[in-house]
Amino acid sequence: MKKVYQRPRSLRDVPMHYCPGCGHSIIHRLIAELLDEMKLRESAICVPPAGCAVLAYYYLDIDMVEAPHGRATAVATGVKRVRPDNMVFSYQGDGDLAAIGTAEALHTANRGENITVIFVNNAVYGMTGGQMAPTTLVGMKTTTTPAGRNIKTEGPPIKVCELLQGFENTVYLERTAVNSPANVIKTKKAIKKAFNYQKKKAGFSLVEILSPCPTNWRMDAVASCEWIDEVMAKEFPLGVIKEVKC
């Protein structure tokens, strides 16, 4: 029998700690597949900070550099400047990139650093107990907004791609999801495109991925996937936000 599907070489053969229905494991797999297919495994360097994916080095069989909470784009900048021929990418959640890491992310994008950011948006602080994140939707209940996010006191959710769209040196911004087979395929294509922009030395690229978080959303896995389509994607529309042809 011909084998048509197997574990990527860049993904370690170990059990994952993610909650059932979490999107991180899917995204890890997509990254690993691309590193193998694009022959980037030996040159790739991933920079994960604090968050649910802080243990990504257990799963991706590539060089990793841990960053303090929110500082992944700053660390990735340093790594890329010292090793410009490596494929350098950060792997960050919304609580990390859009909150404590806002300044680092904005200035990295503004400078047009030639790195790739994989930005996982599940609209909540996942690892630390489900608190409100900058991307939490209006009316969404979390441990710190038990009555729902109030736009008058907490403001609206931050749209990172739209925020970075106006920067001259951002070359590729796309928002995808991993809640369906079709969206998983689109997400893989988007990450590949972002990696190719970096290979061309074009500048800063970011792929935002809407990812289910059943535990903190208090839903089962199926309902979480449906909620992305029915609610979350209306607040964070999927598609290419910016693409500079080069």
The tally of domains stands at 1
Strand/helix succession: HEEHEHHEHHEHEHHE
Which fold name fills CATH's third level, the topology? Answer: Rossmann fold
Residue windows where pLDDT falls under 50 for at least 5 positions: none
Radius of gyration: 17 Å
> Given this structure, which CATH class is correct?
Alpha Beta
Q: How is the secondary structure organized here?
A:
Layout: H1 24-37, E1 44-47, E2 63-64, H2 72-82, E3 87-93, H3 94-100, H4 102-111, E4 116-121, H5 151-154, H6 160-165, E5 170-177, H7 181-199, E6 204-210, H8 214-217, H9 221-235, E7 239-243
Parallel strand pairs: 1-2, 1-3, 3-4, 4-6, 5-6
Antiparallel strand pairs: 5-7
Helix pairs in contact: 1-7, 3-4
Describe this structure in words.
With 246 residues, this protein is α/β, with parallel strands linked by helices. The chain has one domain: Thiamin diphosphate (ThDP)-binding fold, Pyr/PP domains (Rossmann fold, 3-Layer(aba) Sandwich). Helices cover 37% and strands 16% of the residues. It is built from nine helices and seven strands, in the order H-E-E-H-E-H-H-E-H-H-E-H-E-H-H-E. The chain has helices at 24-37, 72-82, 94-100, 102-111, 151-154, 160-165, 181-199, 214-217, 221-235, and strands at 44-47, 63-64, 87-93, 116-121, 170-177, 204-210, 239-243. It has a seven-stranded mixed beta sheet, sandwiched between helices. Strand 5 (170-177), helix 7 and strand 6 (204-210) form a beta-alpha-beta unit. Helix 1 packs across helix 7 and helix 3 packs across helix 4. The radius of gyration is 17 Å and the shape is globular. The mean pLDDT is 95.
